[in-house]
Every structure is written in structure tokens, then in C-alpha cells.
């Protein structure tokens, strides 16, 4: 029996970062997926009435970002001190901002507005985000976003950009080839590569 279990819908969604973190750390985990029809039965057994939920031993941990931070501490994927930990948190929050802007495209009902949203994403939101992270990377010797080793910051970046490139191709990196190289570097980590090869194919 695995020490870790991640319970979530049969999607990448808000659980994928945790799956990637465990995979990068070469930790076995139970990938507990279920279909939306099963949710009413499962919901009463979750801590906050929502998923994802990480089960680690006898602990149940809800909320995707709380899970990411818990795993970062547990798997040595945070920084070495409070300053480095905060830098990791900054990257995570920047990514959440990008996600907030990106989902506007999918929830917009007026098709005539979608081209302007897409244009803003490709010409403003993504370049600004990548420029900020490229500056962080360069100021940190160019190896990792925070500190001298792989961290949750790198893996959260990977999770976002791996999904965006799957939908939009490498054009999202047009203004930042440096960050495309960083994405490729993380992709080639053995545990990450293994997870990409075996994870179920889903739309989201």
C-alpha cells in the first residue's frame, strides 16, 4: 500500500501538481481517480466537501495549494530558508494569476469576445509571466528558479506550461526561449518523464 494517495476526478485539474511532485521525488502513490457521477457518494467523506484530497498515513489534507506546500516540505521540494520558501510561494501565486486569466477563455460564452481574450493571453499575460520567471531564473544562476535544486516552483511552472504547450504549441514561448529550455530540462527528469508516459490521457 502506498504511503500517499491523491483523490480527484479523472482529470489533471487541481491534482496534477501533487502527482508531478510525487513523481519527481520518485515516490509511489495511489492515483485515486473517479468519475463525476461518483462525486455525490464521495463528497461527505472529504474534509472540506471538495477535492483534491491528499491522504498521507492517517492524515487527510484538502485544498490543492495546501497539498502542494505540504508535499514541498515533506519531499524536500521547498527552499532552504524562509526567503527561498517565500520565493517558491511567489511563483505559485503568479501561476494562479495566469490560470485565472486563462480560464476566462473557456468560460466566455460570447464567441465574438474570445479572439481578444486569446490575443491578450498570447501577447500580454504569458509573455509577462515568462519574463518574470526568466528574470528569477537568471538571477538564481540559471539552473533552478529557487535555490540550488529542483523545487515546487519549477514543478508548478512545468505543470502549467506543459498543459499550455499541449493546447497552443511552443508559440507560448516565442518571447522566452530560455524558459522553453527550462521546461525541457524539467521534462527530462526521470520521475517526471515516467509520469508523463503512464498518466491517463484526459482533456483537462
From TrEMBL:
GO term, biological process aspect, one: glutathione metabolic process
UniProt xrefs under InterPro entries: Glutathione-S-Trfase_C-like, Glutathione-S-Trfase_C_sf, Glutathione_S-Trfase, Glutathione_S-Trfase_N, GST_C, GST_superfamily, Thioredoxin-like_sf
SUPFAM superfamilies assigned: GST C-terminal domain-like (SSF47616), Thioredoxin-like (SSF52833)
Annotated GST C-terminal domain residues: 81-204
Domain annotation GST N-terminal: ranges: 2-79
Source taxon at top rank: Eukaryota
Pfam family, one: GST_N
Its EC number(s): 5.3.99.2
Keyword Aminoacyl-tRNA synthetase: no
UniProt keyword terms in alphabetical order: Eye lens protein, Isomerase, Transferase
PROSITE patterns xref list: GST_CTER, GST_NTER
Enzyme class name: isomerase
Keyword Transferase part of the UniProt annotation: yes
A single MF term (Gene Ontology): prostaglandin-D synthase activity
Family statement: Belongs to the GST superfamily.
Task performed by this protein: S-crystallins are structural components of squids and octopi eye lens. Contains relatively little if any GST activity.
Name this protein carries in UniProt: Prostaglandin-H2 D-isomerase / glutathione transferase
Lineage start: Eukaryota, Metazoa, Spiralia, Lophotrochozoa, Mollusca
